[in-house]
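Wait, can you check?
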Amino acid sequence: MLGPVILAASRSDRMRRLISAAPVTKQVVDRFIPGETVDDIVPIIEELTGRGLELTMDVVGEDITTPEQAAAARDAYLALVDRLKELQLGERVEMSVKLSMFGQALEGGHELALANVRPVVEAAAAIGTTVTLDAEDHTTLDSMFAIHEALREDHPQTGCVIQAYLFRTEADARRLAANGSRVRLVKGAYKEPAEVAHQQKHEIDKAYVRILKVLMEGEGYPMIGSHDPRLISIAQELARKAGRKPDEYEFQMLYGIRGEEHLRLAAEGHRMRVYTAYGTDWYGYFMRRLAEKPANLRFFVRSMLTKG
């Protein structure tokens, strides 16, 4: 399986330098990360919302080593909120954050991350939108869920992400589905040991369906993070069986992947949200996109061979 190899490369400084220096890299990265600044991304936001889609915005950058960098990450999201307010798109565009970017891995990181993310959640609420806490590797999840619970005391619309490949996730889903939270279910994109996570695709897919059934039958708001046509079809059937209306769940897909499917689902009356990342520290995000889907890797390699 190439996925674990690519994920290992995502943590290699040597591979970062090699891939970043390749002449074709920027062209290919732009497929998944269409800008470096808020100004770059505004036309994308306007185009996608104008076509009936909703968005969740991610300012990429997880390699935080100082409290000052974590504060800068907070400020980058606050600048995004300001721009969304100007655009009057708060109801159409939410934000996704990785707590590692807010200092979670630093000394005193749990408290630091909570202190940095809270003003972003408050600013988002003030313009009518919200924040979803992205899941990272399994060692960070207890902290993430605790921060999620703390934020929901004042802002119950704050969402979180759960990952189907982890053994713990079905229990997490039952707890979250019972308390009315917004939950995005994804397969998972980090290299996890066999002691804590399924390793085979078919096992991950089966876990995904089991967990999605829990979410659909619960009291929360499920967000289906998948590009898999089979899982999308299953999600629609589970929603029907659970008696959910089209505005009581949503699909989420990455910018740059299956764009026509985004529009098809929206045209059919589904809520369709596009996960759109921007920023300069793109390497880790980009490598996980390659690891998730072999077609993404083939696209990158083909581009390097033909245009490098």
Notes: The longest strand covers residues 272-278. Residues 303-308 have pLDDT under 50 and may be disordered. DSSP finds 13 helices and eight strands in the chain. The beta strands are 54-59, 93-97, 131-133, 159-163, 182-186, 221-225, 250-254, 272-278.
